[in-house]
Amino acid sequence: MTILSAQKLLERTFNFAEGELLLINKPYKWTSFDVVGKIRNSLKPLKLKVGHAGTLDPLATGLLILCTGKLTKQIDTFQAEDKEYTGTMILGATTPSFDMETVVDQEYPLTNLTEEAIYAAAAPFTGDIQQYPPAHSAVKVNGERLYVKARRGEEQELRLRFVSVPVFEITRIALPEVDFRIVCSKGTYIRSLVSDFGKHLENGAYLSKLTRTRSGNFFLEDAFEVTDLVEYLKNKREAAAAEQADTNIQ
Question: Cα separations (Å) of 174 from 103, 211, 250?
Answer without folding.
Answer: 21, 19, 68
